[in-house]
C-alpha cells in the first residue's frame, strides 16, 4: 500500500516530513518501507503553498492485508493530531493506494498528474476526479488542497522518479522546538569536506555560511542532501549537535530540475519554471534593493530576468552580461519576470553598439532618430558605431550560491558528477562546464 500525505504544516511550525518520520515508526509493526520514503517538492510557485511545498509518500509492504483498516486509522489519527489545523493555509490531504489493481490507464493518469503537480498549477477538483475515477481511498481536510500533493507523491511512488537524490533529515527533541539549534560548526565543515561532492548544500563556501539548518521553530534540526544513502549517512556520522530525536533518509526529487520546462520565450506563463534559450536584448541594470535585471529575447518575444539580492555573488556574473550575448536561462517565472536559478552563457558578444566617441567622451543622443552630438565640440554623427569590447567573463554555466538555492534546483555539482575527472573540484558559486544536456545524451 502507498500512503500519500501533504499540507500538514504551516509557516510557523510542524513539517510534513516530520509527520512522515513519526508515522514510519508507528507503522513499523505492520510492514516495511519498500525502498525509501519519498519526499516530493511540488511546483514552488503555487500561491497556496505553506513552506517548502513538500509532500511525502510511504510505500509500505504489509505483513497482512487484514491490517489495512487499522493502518488507515493510525495515519488519519496522526494527521489529525499533528497537522496545524488552525492555519487557514493548512489543508491536509491523505491518500491510500492499494497494492493491487494499479495498472495501464490509471498508472498513466497518475504519472501525468504527478509531473503536473511539480511543473504546473493544478485544481483541487482534478485530484478529486482521479481519486473518484479509480476508487482511491482518501481523506481531505478543510478545503482539501492537500489531496493534490498527497496524490502526486503517491503517484511518484508508483511510477518512480526519473531522477532523484537523497536527504537525511534529523529532527529535534520536542522540548527544544523554537529554541536555538545547538550544532558544532566545525563538525559541519568537516562533514562537508569529508563527503563533498557526494553531498552538497551543507555549507556555502563563498558566503562562509552553514546552510543545512533552518532557523524556523519547526522540528527539523538539519538536512543533509546527497547522491546516496551512504553519502548522507557518512556526513551525518561526523556532525556533533544537540540530541537527535530521530532521523529519516528520504528519496526525493530535490535538486533534479524536475520543475523546469524547456520552452520558448513566447510560451512562458506565470507560476511555471523554464529553461529558455535567448539573446540578451537589454543589458543588466541594478535596481533598488540590489536586484539585477536584464532582458532576454528569442526574436519573437522578450522576458525580464532577475538575479535577486539573495543570490549574492551570482549577481556579479549577471552584471557582466551585454546585449547580444547568447544565453540559456533557468528559473521560475512570476509577475512576468524569470527568477534566475542558473544561467549558461553560450556565446559572448565581442561587439557592442555604442554612441560615437569624440573629445574623449561618448556623444549624447540628440533625440530619437536625430543622431548624436558631442557636447564639447558640437560634432554630429547620424549613427551609433560598432566597437569591440573587452569581456571579463567566460562562456560557461553559472549558478546561484547554496544559500539561495531552491529545493528543486539541480546544482552544477550534480552535472559535474558525471565527469569523473572534475569530481575533486571544490565548490564555487560559479563553475564552468560543458553542456550537461550534451553529457547526458552522450552517456545514455
Ligand atoms: Zn568633440
Automatic annotation (TrEMBL):
The gene is tiaS. It comes from the Archaea. ATP-dependent agmatine transferase that catalyzes the formation of 2-agmatinylcytidine (agm2C) at the wobble position (C34) of tRNA(Ile2), converting the codon specificity from AUG to AUA. One of its GO terms (cellular component) is cytoplasm. Residues 2-141 form the TiaS-like TCKD domain. It is an enzyme of class 6 (ligase). Keywords: ATP-binding, Cytoplasm, DNA-binding, Ligase, Nucleotide-binding, tRNA processing. GO terms for biological process: tRNA wobble cytosine modification. It comes from Candidatus Methanoperedens nitratireducens. This is tRNA(Ile2) 2-agmatinylcytidine synthetase TiaS. It is found in: Cytoplasm. Its EC number is 6.3.4.22. Residues 145-259 form the TiaS FLD domain. The keyword Phosphoprotein does not apply.
